[in-house]
Design goal:
Layout lengths: L9 E4 L2 E4 L19 H4 L34 E8 L10 H18 L3 E6 L11 H10 L4 E4 L3 H13 L3 E4 L16 E3 L4 H14 L4 E7 L2 H16 L3 E8 L7 H9 L4 E5 L4 H10 L7 E3 L20 E5 L3 H17 L11 H18 L4 H14 L3 E3 L2 H9 L4 E3 L6 E3 L5 E3 L1 E7 L5 E3 L4
Parallel strand pairs: 3-4, 3-5, 5-6, 6-7, 8-9, 8-10, 10-11, 11-12, 13-14
Antiparallel strand pairs: 1-2, 2-17, 12-17, 15-16, 17-18
Helix pairs in contact: 2-10, 3-4, 5-6, 10-11, 10-12
Length: 452
Amino acid sequence: MSVFTRSRASKVLGAIALVGASALVLSGCTGGGGDADTPEETGEAAGFDFPINCDEAAPADYVPEYASTSTGPGTDLTYKIGTALPVTGNLAFLGPPEIAATEFAASQINAAGKGITIDLIQGDSGDTDNKAYETEIPRLLGEGATAIVGAASSGTSLQFVDQVIAAGAIQFSPANTSAAFTGYEDNGLYWRTAPSDVLQGEVLGNLIAADGNETLGMIVLNDAYGTGLACFTKEAFESAGGEVVAAQLYNTGDANFSAQIDEVLAASPDAIALITFEEVTTMIPELVGADFPAEGLYFVDGNLSNFGEEFETGTLAGAKGTYPAVDPETITTFRDELQAFWTGEGQPELKDFTYAPESYDAVVLLALAALQAGSTAGPDVAANLQSVSGADGGTACSTFAECADLIIAGEVADYEGVSGPITFDEVGDPTEATIGVFQFGEDNNYEFLNLG
């Protein structure tokens, strides 16, 4: 099992747990690094078999080579960017903020008039059950897209990433968090603005333990996202002195979760981590109906939503969750501007904003890299993405127009995005990221947790 050691730094800002993604020891789920079938790693010592081989969650060590003969800046480029975001499927609630953000970014880039025009082609990723991507990805590539933003689901992205790579196009996800993409053999064509779940798992596991919970149960989506996040959460929770006493898997497309819920409740855990997508809306009434306290429930980026009147007032009061986010004081303006833009386009008001900043930044970064390359070909853009994200230093800039002016002047731009500083490493992962900690109120909506 490969181990990547990077410098460690962390701090807490209000309710945000800020941990540099480059600051983690990416060593897989298990603490000892031995055989995944040993009692310590499978949970046999706790009387059950942990159903996931956590060795498989560890990132690979492939590092691509980047090469481009194209030189910029571009002066009259048209960049066809497709999206494969969840219009349908079990992450469809994330579709509106992500889609709105890509449209918002494209509108600002085109209005800037800096030598590049974005031709945005919207598409639907669906999920691994309805398989919308099977027709959508060929359509997007067939219409000339040389970059595809999406999918939101890691498991869905893994179904078509090889097809995009084979076409020489970039796949750029704003929401894939599976560690499976770190070191994926992608010829340098896969990128993401979302941090690996190695980070979220560390924050979530430590949060559950810090709340005084000694035992933990899990209900986990059986895909690359769910199993990886479960492993990293388990590792952090156990390192903090806790014990995982139950873990149940389910598959995309499943509609009944009574068996999994009964098995987890039978272990009498202090807390339950719900590592799911929208299926959580079916699980919540059953868990609450069994008198499991809401304050013992923990949500993740795949299901944290403002449920509001979907449940009876107070149903989720006290429950907590995590997802990649930034200080709310710095994101309010972006959210307001995005809401105004989207409703101005005649679209319904956005309910959630999860991964909207990351989606916006994905389009801006692609445009800046294409402008610097003087080309919209996948390999040419890929060879410039690290540079425009700040990996080569340069002058910090926070808007497309500001960064574009630097590039046009022959200078090095360091794009500081609305989702954070970003700064890509050599495998296309952001090296700086933040994880927000949230808590549900009586209205079943969440707010940043006030840590005092």
